[in-house]
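Quick one, T. Sequence first:
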Amino acid sequence: MMEDLSLHILDLAENATAAGAKRIRIAVNENERRDILTIRVTDDGRGMSAEERRLALDPFFTTKDKRTGLGLALLAQTAGLCGGAVDLASAPGAGTRVAVRFRYGHLDRPPLSKMAETVMMLVFGHPEVGLLYCHRRNGRVFRFDSRRTLGRSRGGSAWSPAVIEAVERELRGGLRRIGAR
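Structure tokens:
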């Protein structure tokens, strides 16, 4: 089990970039009243064949040059332990959508506390990818669009300290406004 759910989100998004995605959507919905946490990562990458989809949750299956594909398998195991499940939809040439649900208040549910760091890693690690991030918490909403934000910050390179600080300020401030971390 990963120590923070944001690491699973990072893994899913990294898989999307490896599959050639040019646009990734991350949607998080925390609803304490309904006792549900949902996470959805959708991309426009190469997608998966029916055989790849069938094997995707197997920890010993991978399309990469390593021996295991633990990311999705660990996510599915964690969701199952926390009263939830993973739903995977994908087709060749049509991208992939991974949706996962957890019981929000489940004792074994890992925290979701590093989303600002996760989004920053994706934005600055893959500036060629458009990242849309929507986080809902108990009816409040924060939206972040990397292309809009980086486009507004074009006073220098995407790597300038001013741009990095502006993105971090936007993410942390937006998450704080909705009561998320």
